[in-house]
Amino acid sequence: MKITKLIKSGIKNLAINKMRTGLAVLGIVIGIGSVIALVSLGESSKKAVQSSIQSIGSNLLTVLPGFTFSGNVRGAMGGAQTLTNEDAEAIKTSSRITTVKSVSPEYSGRAQIIAGRNNTNTQVVGVEPVYAQVRKISLEKGSFLTSQHLTSMAKVAVLGPGVAEDLFGEGVDPVGQTIRINGKNFLVIGLTKSKGGMGMDNQDDRIIVPLTTAQKQLFGVKYLSSIALEAKSEAVMTQAQNEVGYLLLSRHKLTAVEDADFRIMSQEDILQAASAVTGTFTTLLTGIAAISLLVGGIGIMNIMLMSVTERTREIGLRKALGAKKKTIVYQFLTESIILTFTGGLIGIVLGIGGYYLYARANNAVFSLSFSSVFLAFFVSAGIGVLFGWYPARKAASLQPIEALRYE
Amino acid sequence: MAKSVINISRLSKIYKSDSLELKALDDISLNINQGEFVAIMGPSGSGKSTLMHILGALDLPTGGTYLLNGQNVGLLSDDQLADIRNKEIGFVFQAYNLLARTSAIENVILPLDYAGVPEPEQYERALAMLKKVGLADRLSHPPNKLSGGQQQRVAIARALVMNPSIILADEPTGNIASAQAEEIMAIFEQLNDDGHTIVMITHEPDIAEHAQRIIHLLDGKIVKDGNGHKRRIINGKAKE
Fold first, then answer.
1. What are the residue boundaries of the structural domains of chain B, listed by start?
2. What was the pLDDT predicted at A113?
């Protein structure tokens, strides 16, 4: 029999029982669609975390203070007060440091912000003008901090777009407005461009103020919460890490590397730490997707087995009328292929479409996992074809009368 | 001498289960010539359906030989058997066995399709057969829109459409009201008069009387093989 004829009669046979055909297609659609949507979702959140970390810059090293100790109890990482402005100054000026281009000392703490009737609680970062270069911050409106602001301990602030929206509403220009940070008035002089980011460490939700203002006027501290370093190139990252590490060790009067009361992390390190978290997330989603695929597969198997078994009498009749075994097998194979491919295509379209809508609604990265598309499609189609073909072949091998008598 | 269409010798069919051995057919020998109209009678369990299925190549015997038009059916491959069922045998079932949700003409076309007849010819031949059984106005009706008698007439058209050398009917009137049963029998008589060889199973004596020859089976054996009379009287013409 010619292929076109097989397909034509396959479609005709499938159209005869619309309910059965519909259910079979639905099973495949759900199996494939859910796998594609879930796996892609996992991939895209992984990529989102990666890109938000990479957007900070790949030449970046971050020096963080070590753990706090009270007695023998170790406190939170980064909680110690061991990094000082002098440490930062030393890195800038020391002749032992050859590979660091810029040094950005930072102090950040949470503060209550009020603007008119709105108020919010967010991260306030005290920085020097070089921060913009090191952290790759660019401005949407207004201007960034200057060294005059720093020396005069000016009460000026640059807002992230997230905070600006919280305080002034969407689309309102905050430059020139006044906000109150911990009860003190600050003039808004700039608005940064959106960088995106995730969860607690969202860069768009920050307020940037001069370091001196933050340390002395807002938080009353004499230490730093981190020092960001820009290495001269990506190639000298390790060297920069070592140079800064040994300088700080000697400044803190420590000899052994194990005793260090600070940590120097590259973006690579941070990326790895974050990847471990998102990796767990992706594994979880992949697990759910695998279960969906399994359940979908069993659904497809069930409906194909059922529909072919139900048609055993039909197979017997067709054989009684002179159908050869291979004619029957081709017929059922064609029908299962049409079913699974139709279902598969609809599933792919719905899966990708659903994921696309999700990504758009949540401003997430749209990153389609092609391997999941292929995997889902071939597993589902394979199961569909196998379980359409196998029982049909079995029924076609029976003596016609046995198939006709089948209950 | 008339040409033999069906010749079986020492045919047996034994169903085996764990402890039980059931002889459905026990060493049967039988010859049916071209143009005969034979009725096979017997109580349930006598083996008449089993015999019919073997004659229709729907089932295989466990012993003995079956020659159909001189060809030993027991030696044929699966595909050759399919050809025999397609071209040599027209089978009419008690339960009609039409494809559900499929129009009358599509049902009649099925054997033509399996024989590889080109499409326009398929339609012509199926149409002619449905006209012959009086269903020219029911071509596109699916089985569930037809009465029992009409469904059986579609099944007869389907059995005839390949112009087989023998028509096998397994209780063709078993599911049909008696008025319609007479119409069905009239069709079979007409077919026989046109030269078709017909073998029919029935348990109703007055249906069997339409045949020229009546064979009685009991416990898998032929117990009586004789002439039917009614039809000769009705038609007013003697055959033999």
1. 89-163
2. 92
CA separation, residue A56 to residues A52, A62, A116, A229, A306 (Å): 7, 11, 32, 12, 57
When scoring A12, A313, A321 by the number of chain B Cβ atoms within 10 A, the one with the most, hence best to mutate, is A321
Give residue-wise pLDDT tens across range A301-343. Answer: 787 788 778 788 889 999 999 999 999 999 888 888 888 888 8
User: What does pTM read for this prediction?
Assistant: 0.69
Name the minimum distance, in Å, from the CA of B63 to any CA of chain A: 16
Q: In what order do the strands lie in the sheet with B221-227?
A: B89-92, B166-170, B197-201, B37-41, B213-218, B221-227
Using 50, 70 and 90 to split pLDDT, how confident is the model at A278?
A: confident
Report CB contact under 8 Å: B82, A323: yes
